[in-house]
Input
Amino acid sequence: GEAAKILKIKAAEAEAQARYLSGRGVAQMRQAIADGMKTAVTGLVEGGLPTQQAVETMILTQYIDTLRDFALNPNKSAILLPPGKTAQLCDGGVEGDVMGGQRV
Output
């Protein structure tokens, strides 16, 4: 009766709090990534690269890091988008390759 109702409410409150904290953690991680990218691009520009080339270098570096990560962890999977097609992702206009040869 009443005890089961209270337990159900407490469980729902705990779930809501866990989701809230998870969201905050994701937001903090994304902010840290953005800050790191900004610092890296700024450093490349201050080192003499044009801004566009600095950004492209960061994108290429991220791509290579991702490939290395998947090579070292063969049980993972990923969707690789063709270069320059990420803006179309939200429109559903990009067909990517899934690591391992499968298509999406």
